[in-house]
Amino acid sequence: RTDTGECLLSNAAAASALALSPDNSLLGVGGSAGEVAVFAVATPQEIAHFATDRTPVQALAFQRNPRRHEQPRTAPNFLLAAGTDGNAIIIWDLSTSTLLNRCMGSSYGVRTLAFNADGTLLATAGNEFVKLWDLANGRLLLDVPGMSTIYDLVLSPDASKLAFVGNSWSPVDAANIVEISHGRGTKTLRGLSRPVVKVWVSPDGRLVAALSQGWEIGVWEWPSGRLRHVLEGPVGRSADNSALAFDAHSTRLAAAAGSRAKLWDLSSGEKERQWDLPAGLVD
Fold first, then answer.
1. Is 65 exposed, middle or buried (CB count within 10 Å of its CB: 0-12, 13-18, 19+)?
2. Which of 47, 82, 132, 236 is the 20 to 30 A CA-CA neighbour of 247?
3. CA 86 to chain centre
């Protein structure tokens, strides 16, 4: 604790990277053999353990997880990203202790990484290039020429600016700020891992919902494009025959497919109710 100097957690293993969750409830510890451990600060106890690629973990970062899981959670609902000396970039869903994605294509070891505010993008850097990734599918979106060595970077909450600092083969370290133009005239709403088959707009025009072929439902704020939730939609025979509707006040969302309908509270993303229905083809 910074106010009392009290030690809350002590780990005998050699740590090569550290990170705190946004609410300071979790501590991520990366090791020199490629292992990542997550501790609950208040307890303290280890709540998750992952392996990367046997090379030292050089960077860790937490971010709020936009996915709302209906099965019991094993940990708080955060994403955790790790970058290693062997150029691995791995993202886990802590709430289920499962692998979310691997971002493939980094040429050098990863020294630093940062999420955007809604957990849809990840920026990474090591030597020469800064890269921007789509977290839903692990796809590389942008490659920015950087410096010989990049020490740290930060992505603005709306992902419109990327700042990084490093060494450019000169005796003086340098800082750069890059402005990112998303879509070149169109706005791309990110967060779903499969192709989108249907889109809906709320009655007040302030929310957009979309259904993917993987039965994920994304809900975004408009016009900012910030991802609010990714919901587990009911599964039917064909996603493009599903039905979805906002309520009159744009505070709840209902979806029907196959033999089930679900209703969510859009402020929290929690499921309020579900109903079993006779099976249908056009829902």
1. buried
2. 236
3. 22
Using an 8 Å Cβ cutoff, are 265 and 251 in contact?
yes
Cα separation, 261 vs 283, in Å, equals 10
Task: Identify the DSSP state of 241.
Answer: G
pLDDT tens digit at each of 283 positions of the chain? 778 888 877 765 678 999 999 999 999 999 999 999 999 988 888 999 999 988 999 999 999 999 998 887 778 899 999 999 999 999 999 999 999 999 988 878 899 999 999 999 999 998 878 999 999 999 999 888 877 788 899 998 888 899 988 876 555 556 788 898 876 667 889 999 899 999 999 999 999 999 999 999 999 999 989 999 999 999 998 898 899 999 999 999 999 999 999 999 999 999 999 999 988 777 7
Q: Shortest CA distance to 109 belongs to which of 131, 91, 94?
A: 131
Bridge partners, residue 29, by sequence = 18, 37
Question: Would you say the C-alpha torsion 223, 225, 228, 230 has a positive or negative sign?
Answer: positive
The strand pairing partners of 217, in sequence order, are: 211, 231
Instruction: Give the Cα-Cα-Cα angle 222, 69, 240 (nearest 5 degrees).
Output: 60
DSSP single-letter state for residue 265 = E
- Which residues are within 8 A (CB) of 132 and not within 5 positions of it... i.e. 6 or more apart? 121, 122, 123, 140, 141, 142, 144, 155, 159, 162, 180
Q: What is the pTM of this model?
A: 0.86
Separation in Å, CA 67 to CA 94, 233, 270? 11, 12, 10
| Placement of tokens 């510890």 in the chain | 29
Residue whose C-alpha is closest to residue 225's, from 140, 141, 139, 159: 159
